[in-house]
User: What shape does this take?
Amino acid sequence: MGRMSLKRKNMFASVRVATLAAAVFLLPGCAPSSGELVVYSARVEALIKPILDRYTAETGTQVRFVTDDAGPLIERLNAEGANTPADILLTVDAGELWFAAERGLLQRVDSPVLAASIPESLRDPGNRWFGFSLRARTIAYSSERVDPAMLGSYADLADPKWRGRLCLRTSKQIYNQSLVAMLIAEFGEPRTEEIVRGWVANLATDVFSSDVKLLEAIAAGQCDVGLVNTYYYGRILREQPEFPVKLFWADQSGSGVHVNVSGAGVTAHARHAAEARRFLEWLAGAEAQGLFARVNLEFPVSPAVELDPIVAAWGPFKQNPISVAKAGELQADAVRLMDRAGYR
Assistant: This one.
């Protein structure tokens, strides 16, 4: 249900592959016909293909897709303009969706189905993109060395009691940029910068390239606490049920856990806009929401859909109600703030 590849991994190779794929779509006689969709997906193939295959099985619509990181896909959409073969942009962070929409690459979709199915805080105020799976970024801690009673909010990780005990993923990763953007939306820049400076002061080691490596560092004793997207932890538990790390839902006495979305929008020059809209509406339905929940251990945006047992075992949590669109609106401010605070 979510895409878990590292940012920029094999970017140039993937751009070449994606470009070749797009060239095939644009060859004479090879443009998608009625009953087909082209998806530009920033989610890895193994995580999105089961969902796309299910849509084809249910509707008969053939779905072709190109996978790459969101940045290159957005740049391709911009460069292709009206000649793009893409009908859908599907990616893994509200900040990326916001950026694509602000560049005029996504069109407004007025759908009573989507309006009723997707909470307002998990979609674009202008209906240009919609979240279809929910990802929570919260605190992971050593079950051997940390009393959870010591834990609290994101800001609490800046307390000197965590000096030399905190692990963080690189600030270059959009998940942390979005988290800091949401903190700015809640607390303002001065207070958020204090928090981020405190995190940097408490680091036990250099930043990590992935949440998985961070979780493994906690288990190995390199640090005691860190910030992660929960589905990375769930994947490890599938293979290692006794993994000595647990999750703590951050800020439950305050605003709640920071959440983001994996979502999609219809491209501005979609050749099959009506079919693309139907696809988005299908993603909001029970069948697709259940697949999101099972395939990648994320949270469906529909509360009526049953969670995977691994995820359900973590218990309920209060989520921050601030619109995830703020992750995009304040992304540039967040990046500048992290640079000032020495968070690399």
Remarks:
- The CA atoms of residues 234 and 240 lie 10 Å apart.
